[in-house]
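Review session, final week

We close the course with one last complete record, chosen because it touches almost every idea we covered. It is DUF4175 domain-containing protein, a protein from Streptomyces palmae with 64 residues. Go through it on your own first, then we will talk.
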Amino acid sequence: MTVSLPLVFVLGVIAWAAIKFLGVRLWVAAVIALFGFWLSHTSLAPSVESGTRSGVDAVNGTHD
């Protein structure tokens, strides 16, 4: 059985768990999220996306 979850959902669950169980403050999570949005508008965005896709492919065992 294959389950498909969006990466943003998985990261959201991880952020929620960090706030709930690890004591990470909400403002720290908000700053990290804002950093991600700002990073997506820089010249580093294609490299980050490529690295993320490669990592997900490695975990899933998919190779082109």
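Two points worth writing down before the exam:
The two ends are 22 Å apart (CA to CA).
The chain is about 70% helix and 0% strand.
Good luck, everyone.
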